[in-house]
Each structure stands twice: as structure tokens, then as C-alpha cells.
## 1
Amino acid sequence: MTEKISSYKYELIQETIANPEFKSKLSNILKEMTANDLASLIQNSPPQERKIIWDSIELEYEGEVLGELDEQLRDELLKEMEPEEISLAISDLEVDDLVDILQALPEKITNDVLALMNSRDRGRIENVIDFPEESAGGLMNTDVITVRAENTIELVSRYLRFLKNLPQNTDDIYVVTKNDEYLGILPITKILTSDQNMTVREVMDTEFEPISSELNEVDVYDLFKAKDLFSAPVVNDKNQLLGRITVDDIIEIGADEVQEDFRALAQIEEDVFSSPKKSIKNRIFWLSINLFTAIIAAASISLFADVFEKVVYAAVLMPIVASMGGIAATQTLGIYIRAEAMRKLNRKNFRYLFRREFIVSLVNGIFFSIFIFGITFFWFSDYNLAIAISIAMILNLIMAAVGGFLLPYILRKIGYDPAISGGVIITTITDLIGFVTFLGIVSFLVV
Amino acid sequence: MTEKISSYKYELIQETIANPEFKSKLSNILKEMTANDLASLIQNSPPQERKIIWDSIELEYEGEVLGELDEQLRDELLKEMEPEEISLAISDLEVDDLVDILQALPEKITNDVLALMNSRDRGRIENVIDFPEESAGGLMNTDVITVRAENTIELVSRYLRFLKNLPQNTDDIYVVTKNDEYLGILPITKILTSDQNMTVREVMDTEFEPISSELNEVDVYDLFKAKDLFSAPVVNDKNQLLGRITVDDIIEIGADEVQEDFRALAQIEEDVFSSPKKSIKNRIFWLSINLFTAIIAAASISLFADVFEKVVYAAVLMPIVASMGGIAATQTLGIYIRAEAMRKLNRKNFRYLFRREFIVSLVNGIFFSIFIFGITFFWFSDYNLAIAISIAMILNLIMAAVGGFLLPYILRKIGYDPAISGGVIITTITDLIGFVTFLGIVSFLVV
């Protein structure tokens, strides 16, 4: 049901945008939407509509919407805003979102915005801003409720009743010493179901290992996934409680990680609805790199130019070897990138994977080299040409596997992300090997 | 901290496996691990070690591990198990995991397993098994606590205390009529902080729209993400409460969706650590398709074989045009697949994207055709060859954008997933257009 309503609304909004006289109607529709719906509406609109929607959102709502947007788009919008506007917009945000936004600003603007904030907000921020955005410390919120171990459950119940409004999505409260050292978790459900005369110490759960503020966000995501957590406490290296992470703050991390790899493999680095100007710039980058590598491949072919004068069909068959090598290498590279992203590559299974890729390429190499021998012989009735292509095929498929596996390993060693540059480099290598081996053998056997 | 311990353990386990005399030691280590750690250990181990680990897990634990495994691997393990073993292993599972496993079995085995279960378990299952695995109904658990609106908070508190152990991760209980019709949510925190003499009706939250049992799992994931939910009630079309979905059951859906697209783009369809036999079969499929399309491209080249006799350098330059078209088409296809996966493609922004891709390809086409004209003229000092390649380049880049955008649209219309087959088809098209336009123009201008 929810889906239908929101897609109906979406169409309605787009129609309203098309008619500028309905501007006040647009504000009214937008006012009723949640920050997340607004963020997704902006994300999925072409640039011009994005601007109209953004300008129609009320100032006190802008902060929440900013908190829900993709980083790239958020930073674009922030660039257009004045420090005063930013400080007003973000003052009601949860501290983790607030700090994300401040960290995205140029340092000068950050200081201006901080100076414009009230001291309460500045205080909240100072606890979190020093943690890197991609660490548990950067993900956490500081709105935790803490109690002491020696209190009774009854006293805790009264304390919560006194607080009246608990922070959003509070499922656990935490037990700490008077120096804020973490002792354990007291689930809200336990407060309800336990004997009210028992002490917190008797009821609390001490088995859960709190998260270190330095843990990387991907590890935090994996931990939540592995242990079916709704929330978890974050501590510093002295085991002092700093805050808590809730599952809604980390739910997207898994998808974002794979998404980065997907974009890298498709050689796009942009948000889907970006402007033509942005897209052109972005694509030109990858196309230029590809042009460069294609020219290298062409240069390698030109070494054998005299072959074509005598064996015209070498030019016909040549792309087959290169293209098979390219596919095989992309497959192996894809496997490597996925294995690495799962963060479980160690010496032992690295060796297994390498051996397997080698065996797979050997078997497939033999299969396809026999197959292409038959096709070529049937097609051109030229025994030497068929021999040349089948040797080139098996060599290129094996090199595709070895290279598709060792190249990302080497790229990582020297500090590059294999997902981003791996594809272009490896297909250049397989193109080169495909062309040179095939044409080399032809010129040796045939010419 | 968690990360270090688990990777230390992982190495330890692999060493233990290598020494068969330590078999009892292995069971002891495995006994201390959570089901999810075991599942991830199996997932990240080569086939032989997988078997040793699986055989060392105690029967009553196997069910939980099965529940945490990737579908593909889970189904493989289930195939080796007897119905008796399965029914024992899965009897303690949550009902959503239990039903997932039953649905994965061949129908005959499912009936055998059901017959071996006790009536309590059979009863739990019958409420859920009719829902498709990928719907809200298939994701939900039925272990919900319900109360009536006319009761006081005090009575609810006493009822919960009487229940003693609430289902895992209970953050809300639900308010229903005597016919099980859904009325609202009563958060556990509200029970704690509200005046005990108020009625449930006065305290409950009626704003949240319950999830329809038919909602697709991706929409469920989006809803949880948009509204920062920990859990949500599921109703049938008569608004009767059926169960609830908790965030831990849906946290992986986002990543799984992108992962499928990634695998499709890399043309791999297997789990990372699958056996050589599986990998060979799988890769041969994609390589064969590629061989077929490469031969089509070669056949198109052979139409112009006489060109090479006169213009040898045509063979040198030919792959450049094809390869640029392939990259540009993959970029546009990648954008389309991502936009579609975000489930926000509608008529309006479809048109925007198509127009943008066209403009981008036109601008880049002009840029690269001028560029390649210069390079070719500088390299071979052949004016006609330079003209031919620059015309072929601009045509191929524009066709790459148009095809890269319309092809997935058409594939979807006729019922195919563009992520799976789109890449191969579109690069075949750009290869063909690249070769034919370039060689055609060369044979017209030069020969």
C-alpha cells in the first residue's frame, strides 16, 4: 500500500512542478512528506526539478532532508547554502547526521557554522566530531540512557517514567560505573518482566562485547547482521561508554559497499540523475583511459601489419581471441573483488581461489581452443590459421585468470582500489596478449 | 575487537582442519561460535573444508546455521541430508527461516519432513508457508504479542511480567480487536513511561500504516530504511494482524539486490568459493555466449576482407572504434540498471535520462572523433583513414548510448532481466556497428 501512495504522490509532484502557478500547492504536498521521502524524491529527480523541490522545502526541514541524502548530492546542495542557513537547518538533527554534514563542509565554513550554533549544540558535537566519519565513533549517537548497577529495577522504572520521552528507538539502556565505564546492557523488556526488587546487576546482560569507537563501519554492519542487533553500545579504549549505534544508521552500509564495486565495474562514478555536464566530464575520463589503452593494443597490432597483406583472415579472427580473454579476465576479477569485499581473503583461501581460477581457465582454455580450432578450420580450411588461433586462445584464457587474480592483489598492495582501475588494465593486458600471440604465431606459421 | 578475535579464530580453525587428529578440538571450537559465525566460516571456506566443518557441527545446531547461509549453498547442503535429519535440525528455528528451508526442498521431501514434525511446529508453519518467499508474508514471524485497546497499561504490564520471556527483539506489541483486526502499535517504552491507569487506546500509536503481506521484500526493505524502523506489523487484505517483520530479517536485502546486478555485470553466477567443477560449468556458459557473439562480429569483418589487402592499417585501427563503443554502452547500461534497481524510473525521468545519455554521447562523440582524427592522421598520414575512423567513432558512441538505454528497456518489456543479458548483447551491437561502419567507410573512401 505504502508503495502505491508514494508513487502516486511522485507523479502528482512532477505534474505540479511542471505548472509554476501551483507553487503553493507544491509546498503543501512537500510539507506532508517525511524527510526520507523528500530525500528520495530529490535523488530521483532531474537537476532542474531537484532545485525547485529543494527551494520549496521549509528551512527547518532542510537539515533532516540533508541527513537522508546521498553524500555526493548533499555536498552539492551544501555548497549553495550560507553558513546562517546551514546552522539553522541542521540544529535539530541527531548528532551523527549533524557531524556528517559539518565534516563535509570546507573547514572555514565549518567554523562559521559552529560559531553560529548555541552552546548546547556545540557541546553535543564536540563529543563526536573527532571520530572519522567511517568509524563506529562517527556513526554513533550520544543520546543514551545510563543507570548504575546497584540500583533496583523499581528505581530504574521510576527514573524512565520521570524522563517521559525516551530517545527514538530506545530498546536498551546501559549500565555504567561512576566513571562511565561500561558494565552491561539492560534491555527495556527486562525492566518490564523482571522482579522490581532485583538490582540492575542481577538482571543486566554482560555477555555482549561493546563496540570500539575505532571499528570500521563495514565491520559494524557485519556485526549487526551477524548478531541480529537493533542497537549496540560504543566505548573508547578505556572501556568508557561514548554512545550507541542503532540499526537504522547502518542499514545502508552493506548495499553502499556493493554499489561502489558495481559502479567501478560499469566505469561510472556519478549519481544516476546527475546533470549532462557532470556526466560528460565523468564519462570522458573513463573513455580517455580506454582510448589510451586501445591505442596501445592497436600499436601492438601494427607490429604485425605485414601479416594482413598475406593472411587477410587474421584480421577477421583476431578480435575473437581478445574478446574471450577480456570476458574471462572480468569474471576472475569480479570474483576477486567480491571475495575481498567480504573481507575474508586470507592466505589459505587466497591460495584455494588462485588454484581454482587456474584450473578453471586451463579446462575452459582447452575446451575453447579445440572448439575454435574446429570452427576456424571449417570456415577458412586453413590448418595453420586454426592452429594459431587455438594456441592463442588457450594462452590468453590462462593469462586472463592469472592476471585477473594477481593484478587486483598487486594493485591493492601498492595502494590502489582494484575495483576502480582493475577492469581497464586487465582487458588491456588480455587484448595485448590476444593480438600479439595470435598474430605472432600466424606470422611464424603462415607467412 | 570483535573482528580480531574472529579472524584469529578463523586461522585457528583452518589449521585444525589441516590436522585430522584434532577432530575433537575442532568440534570444541565450533561449539563456541554463533550460528552466523559458523555460516560465514562455511561460506568463506573452500569446498573440502566446508564439508569437514559441516560434519563437525552438532545436529541441533545445523538448523540455525542453515538459516544463516546463502540460499545457493544452503540448498546444496540440504540435498545431502535425510528428511529425519532435516526435521530434527530445523525444529528450533524461527518460523520464517523454517519456512524458507521447507520451500527450498523438493515437494516430496517437504512432505516427508512435515510428517516427521510435531503438531506444534506444523501449526506454526501453516500460517506462513503459503506466502511467497520474497513477500512480506514470507519474511514475517508469527511470534507477536497482542493486547486489546480497552485494557489499562497496568494490566498490560502485569501480562508481560506474567509472560516472563518476550520473543527476541520485541520492541513493540500490537493492539488488535477481538477479530484480530489491527488497530495500532504499543511500543514497549510507552508501557514503561505512561501513566499506568491510562488505557491502551489512549497510549497506542495509530499513525503507522501496517505492511500488507503481499508487499515485495525490496519494498519492505525500502520502507524500513525510509522510516528507521526496528520492526513492523504485517496484515492481510482484511487488515487482520498476521505477524511482524524485524529489521534483522531484512537488513541484507539491499546488499543482495545490488550484488545480483554486480554478478550479472561481471558475468559470474556463483558463490565466490564454489568448487572448480561448478565454476567451469558456469563460466563456460558465459564464454560460449561471448564466443558466439564474437563470431558474429568476425563474420561482419569478413565481409570487408578485401579492404585489408589494400589498407593494412584498417586492421590496426578497427578494434579502437569497437572498444570505445563497448565502454560507452556499458556505462549507459550501468546507469539504466541502477536507476531501475532504485525502482523510481517513471515516464518523466526516463525521458530525462534518455535525453541526457543522448546529449552526453553526442558531446563525447564529437570530442573523441576530433581526437581520433588527429591521432590517426598523425600516425598514418592518411586523410581518408582519419575521416573514416572519426565518423565511425561518433556513430558508434551515439548508438552505444541509444542502444545502452533502449535495449534494457526492451529486454524488461519482453520479460528478461537486463542486468543478466544486457551487457553481452549491447557490446555485440557496438562491436558490429564499430566494425561495419569503420570498414564500410574505409572501403568506400579508400579502396
Note: Chain B touches chain A through 126 residues (CB under 8 Å).
## 2
Amino acid sequence: MSITVGYIAAFLTTAAFVPQAWYSWRTRDLSGISLPMYTMFTIGVGFWLFYGYLIGSVPVIFANLITFLLSSMVLGMKIQQIMALRFNR
Amino acid sequence: MSITVGYIAAFLTTAAFVPQAWYSWRTRDLSGISLPMYTMFTIGVGFWLFYGYLIGSVPVIFANLITFLLSSMVLGMKIQQIMALRFNR
């Protein structure tokens, strides 16, 4: 039972970043996105990735690799937007 | 070593939601926030909470309880904003 619950949880908290990455990409509206959040979260997911490697768990590595790519995408767009605003003044 | 890496990962991916919840609360700017993301993510964290209960892990319960509260806050503000827009037409 707990394994199933764990897989559902991992799927939802990983897949959740797909609509955000798509929404940010499509609308380029990142004003409501917190830069500190995505910075901390992306680094944190990087640590989960390293954790998965250390314990030799493919599901942990796989889920966090996807989350890492998606949250890095949002983070990259947010940084790009901040740079654009700063240098267009 | 892996335990330390896991705790750092858990701390970062949990604490990351504090600046987002604070930013959303302070600015009420949630236009860039994806409703499907926060809906899926909050439900997913709920499953992690249940998973922590099933395996009897206090750190998993504690970290996900905080994340659940913070992501629910952002989700609630986003829903509130959508309702306000819909009924103010």
C-alpha cells in the first residue's frame, strides 16, 4: 500500500511542474513567480537527485530529474525576465 | 552521508515555498501562477503526508505538512483571485 501511495505522490509532485513550465513558456508571465522559491526548490531537487544516486534508487532519480529540468526551465525564464527588465531601463 | 543529503533536500524543497507564499500574500500577484500546478502539487504533497504516516516517518510527515500548508495558501489565493475575476465582470 505505502509503495503505491509513494508512487502516486511522486507522480503528482513531479507532473505538477509540467503545467507551470508550459504556462510560463506560453504566457511569459512570470511576475507572480518567486525567484527565491525557484532557486531554493531547484537546488533542493538537485539534492534529491544526488540522494537518489547515493541510495541507488532509480525512481527517486527519475522523478527528480524531470522535476529538476522543469523547475530549471521556470527559473531560467524568471532570471531572463529580471535581466531583461534591468537592462531595458 | 545520504541521510544528510536527504535532510538538506527536504529542507530546501520545503522551505522554498515560504518565499512564494509570502510573495503571493504580499503582492497578490498570482497571474503567473499555474492553477493546475498548485492543484496537482498540493494533492501530491497530501499523498506524501499520507505516505509518511504509513511508513511512520516523522520527518516525512513534518516536512510535507509544512509544504502542504504553504502550497494550500498559494492555491487558495489563486482560486480566490480567479473567482473574483469571474464574478466582477
Note: The mean pLDDT of chain A is 93.
